[in-house]
């Protein structure tokens, strides 16, 4: 919808609603961000907002990124006043924002219940990737991942998932824009949490991201990463249809049981069968297998050859990830020579195997590092607050 068309048609809606615009307590006003088209229609219908006016609201929320109702100038004044009285367009609160030496940005985001997650933007020459979280904490306990050492607190709701994208667009001045000019061209659900254990909220959030009149990302620009929740993989393909990434990291059940404990429930054979039958997978739309390089654990020539055999009949590519260590980590990163040798073997076996360049290490924004520092900081703050309360009491 063009702005000119919206302005012209919007003029016919002036005074179309008689709903009371008496202000509602801010604490009970509902946030419209994160509502799907169907949910938004159901929410606004009792106020007489439907049809073209509903499309105008959607356009302002998700295409224009409107941050306040008075600024939504193609809506009639009565409609703006009504929306202002009953609703908000809140993004998550930014607790801290960090900028890496390599241009990577990391936001520590805080929700009304004081829980926190982190979101990362990685700029590259031809793309800008936003790494989005799906849970506070993590369901899983992958031993190589510092994020996974944190307990699961709760799932994120669709508004909290969509809110990460919208906040990043706010900060990157990315509203609205042609796809070629976007600061955010790709979204990966590779932040905190296991997306397939929060399927319904992730699906709702992705519907908004994929809507051509909403955030307008294409399916080929969205990747969901899972550690291997086998029963949900087919449903992901059928109901969402985005790109799939598998956190594999080992070629035997013995090693993967240690690195990714979920493997004890869904072993490699079951996982690979789910990948072979993933709806829509073909040579032009391959599954990405993520493989963290751990010295002396999973990085031998034999492991590389076993990986090639494992991927047989699966349209696939492999992302090799140098391990990002932390103090007390139980593993070390493979040497550069060993990683190159491993990559060469896999590539010669017919599978693309680029080595991911670590980004944002200096601000703990690299793979497997999200929120580790912020959790420690917040724990210290809570201890200090409790001590102060006890002293004053």
Short structural summary:
With 393 residues, the chain is an alpha/beta fold. The chain has helices spanning 3-10, 37-44, 51-63, 77-86, 158-171, 199-210, 230-239, 253-259, 268-276, 301-310, 336-348, 372-392; strands spanning 30-31, 87-88, 93-99, 105-110, 116-123, 128-131, 135-136, 154-155, 186-189, 222-226, 243-247, 287-293, 316-322.
Detailed description of the structure:
There is one protein chain. The protein has 393 residues and is α/β, with parallel strands linked by helices. It folds into 2 domains: 86 residues, DNA polymerase, domain 1, CATH 1.10.150; 285 residues, TIM Barrel, CATH 3.20.20. Helices cover 34% and strands 16% of the residues. The protein has a 9-stranded mixed beta sheet, covered by helices on one side. A hairpin with a 5-residue loop joins strand 3 and strand 4. Helix 7 runs parallel beside helix 9. The chain starts with a helix and ends with a helix.
Strand content: 15-25%
Gross morphology: elongated
Radius of gyration: 23 Å
CATH architecture of the largest domain: Alpha-Beta Barrel
Classification by helices and strands: alpha/beta
Instruction: Give the count of structural domains.
Output: 2
Poorly predicted spans: 1-20
Helix content: 25-40%
SSE layout and pairing:
Elements: H1 3-10, E1 30-31, H2 37-44, H3 51-63, H4 77-86, E2 87-88, E3 93-99, E4 105-110, E5 116-123, E6 128-131, E7 135-136, E8 154-155, H5 158-171, E9 186-189, H6 199-210, E10 222-226, H7 230-239, E11 243-247, H8 253-259, H9 268-276, E12 287-293, H10 301-310, E13 316-322, H11 336-348, H12 372-392
Parallel strand pairs: 1-2, 6-9, 9-10, 10-11, 11-12, 12-13
Antiparallel strand pairs: 3-4, 4-5, 5-6, 7-8
Helix pairs in contact: 5-6, 7-9, 10-11
């Amino acid at each position: 919808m063009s702005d000119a068309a919206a302005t012209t048609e919007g003029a016919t809606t002036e005074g179309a609603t008689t709903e009371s615009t008496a202000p509602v307590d801010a604490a009970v006003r509902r946030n419209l961000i994160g509502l799907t088209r169907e949910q938004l229609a159901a929410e606004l219908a009792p106020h007489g907002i439907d049809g073209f006016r509903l499309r105008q609201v959607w356009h302002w929320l998700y295409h224009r990124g409107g941050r306040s109702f008075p600024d939504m100038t193609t809506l009639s004044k009565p409609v703006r006043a009504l929306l202002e009285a009953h609703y908000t367009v809140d993004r998550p609160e930014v607790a801290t924002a960090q900028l890496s030496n390599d241009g990577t940005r990391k936001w520590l985001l805080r929700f009304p219940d004081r829980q926190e997650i982190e979101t990362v933007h990685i700029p590259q020459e031809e793309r800008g990737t936003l790494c989005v979280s799906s849970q506070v904490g993590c369901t899983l306990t992958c031993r190589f991942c510092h994020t996974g050492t944190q307990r699961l607190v709760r799932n994120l709701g669709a508004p909290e998932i969509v809110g990460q994208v919208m906040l990043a667009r706010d900060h990157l001045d990315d509203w609205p824009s042609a796809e070629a000019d976007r600061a955010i061209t790709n979204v990966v659900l590779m932040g905190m949490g296991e997306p397939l254990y929060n399927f319904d909220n992730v699906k709702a959030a992705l519907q908004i991201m994929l809507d051509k009149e909403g955030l307008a990302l294409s399916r080929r620009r969205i990747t969901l990463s899972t550690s291997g929740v086998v029963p949900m993989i087919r449903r992901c393909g059928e109901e969402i249809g985005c790109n799939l990434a598998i956190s594999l990291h080992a070629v035997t059940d013995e090693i993967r049981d240690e690195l990714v404990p979920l493997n004890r429930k869904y072993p490699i054979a079951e996982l690979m069968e789910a990948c072979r039958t993933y709806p829509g997978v073909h040579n032009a739309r391959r599954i990405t297998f993520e493989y963290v390089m751990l010295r002396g654990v999973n990085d031998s020539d034999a492991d590389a050859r076993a990986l090639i055999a494992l991927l047989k009949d699966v349209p696939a590519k492999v992302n090799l990830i140098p391990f990002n260590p932390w103090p007390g980590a139980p593993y070390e990163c493979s040497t550069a020579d060993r990683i190159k040798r491993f990559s060469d073997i896999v590539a010669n076996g017919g599978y693309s195997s680029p080595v991911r360049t670590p980004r944002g290490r200096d601000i703990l924004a690299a793979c497997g590092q999200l929120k580790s520092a912020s959790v420690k900081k917040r724990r210290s703050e809570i201890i200090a607050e409790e001590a102060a309360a006890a002293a004053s009491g």
